[in-house]
């Protein structure tokens, strides 16, 4: 009788060194992506004159803001295209592609000709760069969220995925630090003439370093396991048809993102404008409040991620949603009358501690909802849509209510969004113990684990 075919040995677990490289590679690329995204908005006041003629500075800023908004519109498209690529060709290849696109976009902005040199061709280059940035960052969130979660040990996925918001926040802090440095070393005329190009050159160089680093990454075990079993390739993998089979989970991603993204943008990007415009705080003081609060916020993420690995994801999510639903109105009202750096900082930190319950673990929760074959697309597309509709518009909605004389209605808007997410958190299962691969499911067999959500 013929001897039975040997059973292939399961893939060995990644070494500690490989996991550390995965953490660094996934996080640093995310930092560069968000740095480039941030510096466009920050330096627009200096380069608007270079691309748009006329004497009205507001019109020039509106033109640059319009091009900035195009980036948000492209994020769902990027989430779809690059999420599909990550599910079909691997997380590593998608991560490498996103940082390549961001590097090219930063370089395009850095060398874009001014209106005086090439007419509106420079504005066209700017638009193309923003299209690339929107596509890139739309895919980066899903690729990095999926990679960081899958590459982490099963009992440390909360910690591993928390570095996504660490790197996002550090990207903003780096951009802000470069802005402050250039403001103190160059004159306004120099910044408007050529100094505004410096941060984009820096961004392109950073991206090249991350490109080299990501080329050295190993593919995640979950994806390798599924791809290796494709004797008959799954043509539906990473497609909208496959995602439709998990439409309930996609709806969950949108609902759990709603409150978190509105709160995040309210207490980060909008905070400085609110302290200046509503509290009457000096620009330098408001900027320092935001910088300090964001620095502490970044440090909090890993601790909250580790806590979720011990007690589960839902307790942190519910704590965030309850705190945001109940606390937004009093916190924002108090911030509107804050008269000193310390009072504003204390209130800002209180708000960001609450928001940490969402930001530290949302990447892991979303990745743990989907099987391998559609995990990146399942994270990418619903998140990008929710973020474009609610996160990207949070500042506009806040300013619209302020302009109409009903600023405090915005506080209730933020609370209402958090309430929708609260209902979602209460009703959804805890995802901490989900197995992301068949090997994880096999290793957890016989233990007190929830049913595996592995490749399939």
Q: Which helices and strands occur, and which strands form pairs?
A:
Blueprint (H helix, E strand, L loop, with lengths): L15 H36 L5 H33 L1 H21 L3 H4 L2 H31 L5 H29 L2 H6 L4 H18 L5 H8 L11 H5 L2 H21 L3 H7 L5 H29 L2 H23 L4 H19 L2 H7 L6 H17 L2 H10 L3 H21 L10 H6 L13
Helix pairs in contact: 1-2, 1-3, 1-5, 1-6, 1-8, 2-3, 2-5, 2-17, 3-5, 3-8, 5-6, 5-16, 5-17, 6-13, 6-16, 11-15, 11-17, 11-19, 12-13, 13-15, 14-15, 14-19, 16-17, 18-19
Can you describe what's shown?
By secondary structure, this protein is mainly α. Helices cover 77% and strands 0% of the residues. Helix 3 (91-111) runs antiparallel to helix 5 (121-151) and helix 16 (362-368) packs across helix 17 (375-391). The longest helix has 36 residues, at 16-51. Residues 1-11 and 448-452 have low confidence and may be disordered.
Run of helices and strands: HHHHHHHHHHHHHHHHHHHH
Compute the CA-based radius of gyration. Answer: 22 Å
Categorize the overall geometry: globular
Mean pLDDT: 85
Tell me the total number of β-strands. Answer: 0
Cα-to-Cα separation, first versus last residue: 34 Å
Structural class by secondary-structure content: mainly alpha
Largest sheet: none
Question: Can you tag this structure with a few keywords?
Answer:
about 450 residues; 20 helices; disordered N terminus; mainly alpha
Short description:
The chain has 456 residues and is mainly alpha-helical.
